[in-house]
Protein: Sn-glycerol 3-phosphate transport system permease protein
Amino acid sequence: MSASPTSTIARRGNSPAETSRRPARPDHREPEHRAQSGHRGHRLATRILGGYLPLLLAMLIVSLPLLWMVLSSFKSPSEIITTTLSVWPRDPSWENYAEAARSVPFARFFANSVLVTVVGATIKTLLSILTAYALVFIRFPFKNVIFILILVALMVPPQVAVLPNYALIASLGGLNTYWGIIVPGLGTAFGTFLLRQHFSTLPKSMFEAAEIDGAGHWQRLWRMAVPISTPSIATVALVTIVNEWNDYLWPLIITDKPSMMTLPVGLTLLTNTDSGSQNWGVLMAGSVIVILPILIVFTFLQRYVVAGLTQGSVTG
Structure:
């Protein structure tokens, strides 16, 4: 014999009448939910104001002048010098690039820049590797003093040495020569410092074991230190390539013949010609020609930069 629903509810003490008379329990989860929602909103606002907004501003500050330069290189002079703002070119053409190539020998400038950059960056990177290895793994007197001098050189602007370098190179007959452009800048305090800091983090026991097995410094450098330091070396190489390619002051001082000028100096020559003095489109086209190769190189090597700088920032 089954019990009626009314009797079952009565035994459980949950009759509708009692339930309606029972005061509602306070929901403690609602304040916690509000606190969590407020915390998430605060974190989102902090992330936007402290992360995304400065990143967006920095990106606009860097990219807008470059974008304006590229767009202006395809515009006619009437579209650039006007009171009406026009972002996109109405009739884009390559005429400014053709006019820039006719006005100055850009092919010669490009070849000079490639030669100076490849030779200079290669020698500077090799010297940085050798110097950093010696400062870490080879015992010789006054090693710490030499490292402090390198740090001091890192703080001194390179423009300070322009006058003594010019007097020395001119006395040696280096005006309007490739070696006169390359030699004064072969020392790089930044590359030596970065690689020295990275080599200091490498395990000493590994190199001691190789020494016990008969490996000399040359073998330990090129078969052990260099292969496991590729990101740091790539970072030094990339920074050196960019500096060599964009170097303007020293090539401007040491050369006055168009046949020996590099691309940045050639851009100045383009400014002084009749076609480039008032035609901003031609100047913008020449500027694009100057920066385009180094942007391509940076695109291929930029993934090594963060890893290399992070490794170099860890001291041993």
In short: Confidence is low (pLDDT under 50) at residues 1-10.
